[in-house]
Amino acid sequence: MHSLDVIHEYVQTVCQQIRWKKAHSLIAEEMRNHITDGRDAYIKQGHDEITATQQSITDCGDALLIGTQLDRIHRPKPQWGMMLWVVGFVLLGIVLGRVLFPGMDFSYGGLLIEMAWLVIGAVFMCAAYFADFSMLAKYPWRIFITVSLLAMAVFFYVTRHGDWVRVPYMGVITFRYITLLFPVLLVPAIYAGKNKGCFGLITAMLAYGFLCLVAVAAPPSGVSGFAHFMPVGLGLLVFAAARGWFGVSKGRGVLVLVVVLLHVAGFALWLGANIQSSGSRIFHRIVTSFNPGLEPYTRGFEPLQIRRLLSNATLLGEGTPDYSYDWFWPMRDMPQTLYEEYLLAAVTFRFGWLAFAAVMFVIVFFIVQIAIRCSKQKSGLGFMVSIAVVMTFAMQVLTFTISNMGFGIVRTSLPLISSGSAALVANMALLGFMLSVFRTGDAVADKYIDPSAKRKSPFTWQDGKLTIDFKLSAK
What we know:
Elements: H1 3-16, H2 24-44, H3 49-60, H4 63-73, H5 80-100, H6 108-129, H7 135-138, H8 140-161, E1 164-167, E2 171-174, H9 182-192, H10 197-217, H11 223-242, H12 250-273, H13 281-290, H14 301-311, H15 336-341, H16 343-351, H17 353-375, H18 380-404, H19 421-440, H20 446-449, E3 459-462, E4 465-468, H21 470-474
Antiparallel strand pairs: 1-2, 3-4
């Protein structure tokens, strides 16, 4: 028997004892390299190849025993701690809602509806948690095109029927939160360009531009979706170029990054050309966010009231009510949409700026912790997927905080904490996908899923003869 066959049989026996199949490739390669190194050392001592191979395998130990020991080590890493964070944020949102907004529908039926959406979010989160994130790299363009077409179909439906749909007994689903999934969708398009030079970088940039256009087309005006996706997608391109994914020199990488920035600048100019009219919703939203007094009873009404509310807040404890606006504040009959969009402002008014600082500290601490976990990912794909989720989460927190300070250019919800059916489900699914990376990322090696790796063809033509390698084609 050939020495390679002996090594293969031994390694296969070891892997058969390991229940986590995703780890087989890494373990098999490591053991083959170890046995081969030992074999080469014995050959240098004067042993023949077969004897050297057998001796090297003997030094490794019994295959069944080694496999059993490795099975205890190589297992998926449950993310119970991170899941407790998610549960804690959801519970915090429920408690704050009942304390801050007693006028909302917290009846038995309302509680059942809220719990139903939590169950739906939990189902999506579990499905993403157990999903194989490496599929993003194995079938990058299939996934990108399929999901993009589905998003376009949804937005086409929305432009004809409105930006939301009412589900019987369950409330309203807002479609604009679909754009929260776009950063993860961009990752396979970036990964598909790995080691393909400028061509790969250009295709990734085009995919980014296409998603920007789709985000702008999202309801109701596209500003929120574009504002969340544009910086995150650009950040992913920068990370990929900085890590040398595209195999281009630093000079070319910088050049392409400049092209990307020019692309974004051109897109901003396009937006600017469409907000010249004083009747533009985008124009009014930007202007009134900085000077809400220009339209105190229309677009500037909510930012103006937020600033009045915060000006009456204290360091600790409930602020002083402004009774001239008592019908709007202090939130005794707060509508659901304002609960979703101004939760931090309400916390600040009812409990003081120290309470606001405490909530923000917890959220920022969570973001920093998961960012550190992302930086430790061994797989480049795992890093990009997880960092896409982290940046999406952080962008929502940033825009929500700015809005709650009275500068509401875009509308969003505080991830997991403020209510909202579609936003809750989307964020739970994203975090579940990130936890899937943390759970199995150590067993994923980029070279086993690299779409740019050239596969040897089973057909060869040489000297006028066609040769078919059936072993290779069987693989």
